[in-house]
Specification:
Helix content: 40-55%
Largest sheet: 5 strands, antiparallel
Mean pLDDT: 82
Strand content: 15-25%
Length: 288
């Protein structure tokens, strides 16, 4: 059915003119593109989860690539709906290249860096990472421009993908979700070192998520002589689910160590200073 008002021109620019029908077609194609992308990703994730042959991280990567491909095809179809020819699309691509050179290089850099993260899988959704500023958190999503990281305090960080690629990122769970933590502690001089080791290992054993498998046993190292203490470090391997809660983990071990020291009456040091008074100072008052 022919609808006259759809043929009305909105504006003309040189040889190009935009009609109402073309504008509606463009908007419809864009909306349909996002809907089709979402439906395809949901269908793929459902099939992948039922079959169980694709890991969660791989399914996420494939889903993001499907999203980008659908967006690209939809963008071309949308431009065609506006009345652009192939040659005109080439001119648009050239103009886009000029725009990238002038001010969009940051956006393109982040997009390409995001693809690198998805394909290399050095940082994956679900990984627990530490940034250069010392903040730690779980990777929630890798978007077109930035990576979404959520800290243990429920603070969401959006880190540009280019920084995730170019900077040093510590991935705590990249290839092995088991990790050893080092818990430093000190005792007073004169303490029985053998008893200190026994107490620390007993404390580690009392923490429920401590691993004690072959090659991953808890251990105690003596690390130095302090101003008023003997310094030790307790090394413990923990279960994967606890790796993402380092603050609570350290608190649990320190709590257990304190209980063990109280049981064995091991003294925890505190700063001490000795003051020596030298004799021989004159106590006579000066005379005029």
């Amino acid at each position: 059915m022919d609808i006259p008002w759809l043929d009305q021109k909105l504006f003309s620019l040189g040889k190009f003119s935009l009609e109402i029908g073309e504008a509606l077609s463009f908007v419809t194609v864009v909306i349909a593109t996002f809907i089709i992308s979402k439906v395809l990703r949901l269908a793929f994730n459902r099939i992948a989860s039922k079959q169980g042959v694709i890991q969660h991280t791989s399914a996420y990567v494939i889903g993001r690539i499907i999203h980008y491909i659908v967006l690209f095809i939809g963008f071309i179809i949308a431009l065609t709906a506006l009345g652009f020819e192939i040659t005109e699309l080439a001119l648009v691509a050239s103009a886009l290249g000029v725009g990238i050179g002038l001010g969009l290089q940051g956006l393109v850099n982040n997009f390409v860096s995001g693809l690198v993260l998805l394909l290399e899988k050095t940082v994956k959704v679900g990984d627990f990472v530490e940034l250069n500023n010392g903040m730690v958190g779980e990777v929630i999503a890798i978007h077109m421009r930035s990576t979404w990281i959520r800290t243990n305090d429920n603070v969401d960080l959006l880190i540009p993908n280019s920084e995730m690629v170019s900077n040093t990122i510590t991935n705590w769970t990249m290839s092995d979700k088991y990790r050893r933590f080092r818990i430093p502690f000190s005792v007073a001089y004169g303490s029985d070192k053998t008893l200190v080791k026994r107490a620390a290992l007993e404390a580690a054993k009392n923490v429920q998520y401590t691993l004690n498998t072959a090659g991953r046993e808890a251990t105690v190292w003596m690390t130095g002589f302090g101003d008023s203490s003997l310094n030790f470090t307790l090394g413990v391997w923990v279960q994967p689910e606890q790796v993402k809660r380092p603050t609570a983990l350290i608190s649990d071990y320190l709590w257990a160590i304190d209980d063990a020291f109280r049981k064995y009456q091991i003294e925890i040091p505190f700063p001490q200073r000795e003051l020596h008074l030298r004799s021989g100072f004159s106590t006579t008052q000066p005379t005029e």
